[in-house]
Amino acid sequence: MGDVGKIIEYVSTSNKSFDDAIRKAVEKFAKSENDIRGIDIIKMTARIEGKRIKEYRVNVKLSAEA
């Protein structure tokens, strides 16, 4: 019989970078899950003000052992 897993989807933001937004999502997930298995980056978007990126947004799915 195969393993059973859990998948959680997060939307994370950062004013620094996409990498920082991804890191924040993983850190949040790690607070409640011990055996993180992977991450799937679903979508990356940004909010722009005055010709500059003000906020980086990522939609991610994280998986862990159930």
Question: Outline of this structure?
Answer:
The protein is α+β, with helices and mostly antiparallel strands and 66 residues long.
Explain this structure.
By secondary structure, the chain is of the alpha+beta class. The chain has one domain: Flavin-binding protein dodecin (Dodecin subunit-like). 20% of the residues lie in helices and 58% in strands. It is built from 1 helix and 3 strands. The protein has one helix spanning 18-30, and strands at residues 5-14, 36-49, 52-65. Strands 1-3-2 form a 3-stranded antiparallel sheet, covered by helices on one side. Strand 2 and strand 3 form a beta hairpin. The protein is elongated, with a radius of gyration of 14 Å. The model has no long low-confidence stretch (mean pLDDT 94).
Report strand order across the widest sheet. Answer: 1-3-2
Please tally the helical runs, counting DSSP H or I stretches of 4 or more residues: 1
Radius of gyration: 14 Å
Low-confidence parts lasting 5 or more residues at pLDDT below 50?
none
Annotation, overall tally of beta strands: 3
Corresponding CATH superfamily = Flavin-binding protein dodecin
Estimate the global geometry from the Cα principal axes.
elongated
Mean pLDDT equals: 94
Please indicate the percent range of residues in DSSP E strands (runs of 2 or more): over 45%
Number of domains: 1
Percentage of residues assigned to helices: 10-25%
Query: Which CATH architecture is right?
Result: 2-Layer Sandwich
SSE succession: EHEE
CATH class: Alpha Beta
Distance between the termini: 14 Å
- Based on helices, strands and strand pairing, what is the structural class? alpha+beta
Mind describing the biggest β-sheet? Answer: 3 strands, antiparallel
CATH topology tier name? Dodecin subunit-like
